[in-house]
């Protein structure tokens, strides 16, 4: 594609520059309006500057991608209501054999769940689970937060519904769900194993801390079940549903926080976090746990007696617990069956967008309630962001700049050679961290596919899969590389009981080597036989 006129190139670059700055740095001091408004601003400037016409702007919006994104978000909301993510949290601690085993479980569970329920949803739901489990095992949260974020990104590469850029690739390439899954699955499995091995090497000493078994057993009975059962999901925030013991639980946590115990005698080290020892008086801890238990029992009896009085009233609206439990169990089974049906339909090659929307509406009907509370949890700002991004990227493509830059490297990046794959991977890796992964896919997708199609049809599909894999793994390079990283960082910082600040540099020290190694090893996923051989060796 030839370069457009100078005026069009300059104005298009300015409009795209506004979009890029606000997408990468949503809180810049001179215009802190956020990513969604920034995408709309970039789109509006493309039309106002006449880089594209209003009709072309509407045509740039891909309704197939928006429908698929909306459907998967609604399904995720109903899966949370059906306690799917609570069971995932319990799976992390079931018969755990220590810190290293727990770290590997976090990597595996987050990778699989992100492939099925998107990486952002996985990180929103599991971050606090992971932090609490780490604290209860007297382990520092940093390795587990890094494991959650990085493995979620790697795992999400396996399916078209795992992350937004895969949605774009699946729709544009018309690769079936089955072909997409089995094309990247070997790389994903290898990538998760390699990433887990790197994490274990980095944090081997920290994960070798011995637990205080006696105190842990007492505290575990008190905390774990209540924390897991009280967890609730929202796409934007984390909240905790009110329950019988919610206020009691807060009182318990306040009573046994480390800050209230540092002066106790005798002292025993229970954790080492970033080189700092946290010590607690064992005898005082036991007394406070016992007091907390007595407090809960007393309050629970009081509330039970009040509940009994209420149920004895003639006009009481109290429900029959066994009947309600049976109905809820049946509803949960229906939610799981609908979700499995959606995955089967996707594997059979049915239209992905309409399949996801149909599954979402089936869950709305089965719920037999006003759907507004569930639909309000859908991230409509993300859908609007995608609309603005489609228009901004389409306008920038029409300036001719992306095509000119691609022509400069195309001759060296053919995927029929190892050097070509390596150069293409570097270009995708850098551009994904500079311009974000979804815009990178929109800018490079058709060009990379056209270049590969000139070799053969099979190479075209392979090029799309390499783009999906590398653009997704590139998100692990830095904290700003993907939304999943930022979600984990923010959720950890705002955790209700055990907050932790995952800094940019602490993530970068792990992210750079992990991303390079995982990309280098599993990008030989272009050679499926090599990947199977490496998996056999492992």
Automatic annotation (TrEMBL):
**What does the entry list under GO cellular component?**
plasma membrane
Region labeled Disordered — which residues? 297-323
Keywords assigned: Cell membrane, Membrane, Transmembrane, Transmembrane helix, Transport
Localization: Cell membrane
- Taking every annotated instance into account, which residue ranges of this chain make up the domain Citrate transporter-like? 27-474
Keyword Ribosomal protein appears in the UniProt entry: no
Query: How does this protein sit in the membrane?
Result: Multi-pass membrane protein
CDD domains from the UniProt entry: YbiR_permease
InterPro entries in UniProt: Cit_transptr-like_dom
Transmembrane stretches, start-end: 7-27, 33-53, 60-79, 181-204, 333-366, 378-396, 421-444, 464-488
Q: Which residues form the signal peptide?
A: none
* Protein's UniProt name: Citrate transporter-like domain-containing protein
Organism expressing this protein natively = Dendrobium thyrsiflorum (Pinecone-like raceme dendrobium)
User: Taxonomic lineage of this organism?
Assistant: Eukaryota, Viridiplantae, Streptophyta, Embryophyta, Tracheophyta
